[in-house]
From TrEMBL:
Catalytic reaction(s) noted: S-adenosyl-L-methionine + a thiopurine = S-adenosyl-L-homocysteine + a thiopurine S-methylether
Residues making up the signal peptide according to the UniProt record: none
Organism, scientific name: Eudyptes sclateri (Erect-crested penguin)
Chief localization: cytoplasm
Broad EC category: transferase
GO cellular component assignments: cytoplasm
Name assigned to this protein: thiopurine S-methyltransferase
Keyword NADP belongs to the record: no
PROSITE patterns assigned: SAM_MT_TPMT (PS51585)
Subcellular location: Cytoplasm
Binding-site residues, S-adenosyl-L-methionine: 16-27, 56, 77, 121-122, 139
A Pfam family of this chain: TPMT
PANTHER family tied to this protein: THIOPURINE S-METHYLTRANSFERASE
Amino acid sequence: TDTGSQKDRMVAEEEWLRKWETGNIWFHKERGHPLLQKYLDVLLNGRSGLRIFFPLCGKAVEMKWLADMGHRVVGVEVSEKALKEFFVEHSLPFCEEPIPEISGAKKLQTTSGNIALYCCSIYDLSSSIVGKFDGVWDRGALVAVNPCDRQRYVSLMITLMEKNSSYLLVTVSYDPNKHKGPPFYVPESEIKSLFG
């Protein structure tokens, strides 16, 4: 359960923006994440027409995949470049509008309205802005947030979940003394204490 030297590691928002600007996006999966396909039934739980949240979404191809299945997708990402690339790469017409509650933030949304992506810090969101979700696909968010922000992140995620929500979480397991992160090592014991 030891997180080694990572517990004090901080990655600034600017560092993430720089990764997108320079194309250093090793964490992006062009073909989608195989674990979502494997555990899709767990996320959907036999339900259709869900609202599914993608925290720190980048330009995840799974957003279009789930929208094409009839679900409504909402994502959040600090990089406007990532969000615009998502729409362009999938040939999806979109519009932009400011988010009055969040200074400098904007929402990019397909003209059909089934995919809405918020360009802002995840910590600026609340259920009063984005609503609540039937499912969450967290394939790289918990392991990307700074270790000191995990409780804040999980507390927010819990407020965004409907009562019968499904939360699909991907983490990575390795010796945290040999890699400084991100992705950060989050021991299973900590996941259990964070989410209850």
